[in-house]
């Protein structure tokens, strides 16, 4: 059975918010994969990335979460097909962050749309350097060699032989116990090892002095039988070791004689060499750690030698590594770092060079990429403080053709311009033809300028806030004149957290106005308490009746069927003192329970009296509802139903309802009457956009990752 690609995300509840960096992680891994130096995103998981047919990003310019929920019913395809939904953190320039900061691309026409030429724009030197791991570790100022030797804690952390350690029993000390100064001599050390019955044993040792002169270059006879000569890396063969008489103890003695008492040893991952030599040396510079990278990664010696020294070492044409060559390269790298200082090293932008190098290595057309690498190298030399390449640059270097279609273009300064002569329909027709031919596509649809006026956006915001508030609100009554308000609050509180509760006295008999904090609570109150006896009265429970609320029942039904709410249920009536651990224990018997979300008050951090349960499938959620409804937890009777609001919408509603206060909503509406025509036209445009997305989506190949972005206004 063919493996299918899919995306799984663990974000649930109020954590459904991602940054642009996290979006970049997903796009880079989906488009490039492991073989192109990309890693799985930290916040989600792409299954079977190698089977992905392509990546399509649809950008809906001038649209935000506000538009999505204002025209929720119009986005019929979008809300039913797209399984995951996340809130993006705000950005001053969305596309700049999407394409990579500091990147300037000049488009040229091709048969497959627009292909970007790879160019880089210099950015602020200080802003780039401050983020460099080398600068974070060593600062900007040049220092003496003693500042770059590993501390005792660093040696322990990185597996160096330590005097007195149980693991180093029988190891020999070099005897170099004199205090080091910035004038202490440097020595480059490297060993080659073969696999024996004992483990890794030294078969060749090289030592060079500060001038690069070879002081020691000896083959060593292992103590036990060789299992694997590792000739491809060590360069050692059985024939080479046959006449060798030198043993490890001989090498230890010679090293002790050669090294002065204040010697500083330099090597690349020198801990492996010292472990194999069974020697302890107190002062070392490890070039794999000196040229620091993020997240514990390390540059290879071969890459550093080429990028910094311009030397080719460990060549494929040679039989294995040359330990003298490697020892000398490590020594020269340390000398370069000490002489030039951290700032100069950081300005080389090694991460960019590595990205270009790796992408070139895995590309099948190396000759065509040679001029590309030379041009990038020249730009690095001419202007060393450059921005890191974004994923579009990486795609181009690997020979892929990223496609960009839309009204939005970038001029020579990198600023966004509008080409209003291109319609959304024309963009769609071009996308239907070109997207199947591209492995990575960005399709940009736009609203017209008449739909992004500030007064129209302000009107939409007021109306969305008003409708959400009305959906969170219920009226209950009539009650007797002297009814117990506390018992009413207690009964309705069992449906979920209450924002406010007031008595309506304008009517013949008193009613109660209740505003909830979650949609599910208001809906539960309507479904369960309408016609029930509360505080001695048989009451009616209903939502406000306004023009905007006439389609409330339809909207509630569609929210319940939303693909993101599939397998999610809402549970109310919990004690506020219960923790997530308590609830996991209480609901542990429920089949296929995937995760649990216990909402918190955004202001004081306290738990609500409700939670959301997410199941692996909708059938398990239905079965859980039957079990939970009517059962008790810690003496409290529970009420539950299918979820209506996903995590990011729940957070948004909380913020909107908290900020709504008691401002005169109806007064605001009177001022917004003139916007009704524009809003009606906008509703039609949104419906067309949803249809465009549906047509494009149907044209995509199986196993295509499709992302729709509402970048905001």
UniProtKB/TrEMBL annotation:
Q: State the gene name recorded for this protein.
A: Rexo5
Q: Which organism is it from?
A: Ardeotis kori
Q: What is this protein called?
A: REXO5 exonuclease
Q: Which GO terms describe its molecular function?
A: exonuclease activity; RNA binding
Cell division as UniProt keyword: no
Cite the SUPFAM superfamilies for this sequence: Ribonuclease H-like, RNA-binding domain, RBD
Q: Which UniProt keywords apply?
A: Coiled coil, Exonuclease, Hydrolase, Nuclease, RNA-binding
- Superkingdom: Eukaryota
Q: Which residues form a coiled coil?
A: 672-699
- Gene Ontology, cellular component aspect: nucleus
Gene3D superfamilies hit by this protein: 3.30.70.330, Ribonuclease H-like superfamily/Ribonuclease H (3.30.420.10)
Q: Which residues form the RRM domain?
A: 472-546, 567-645
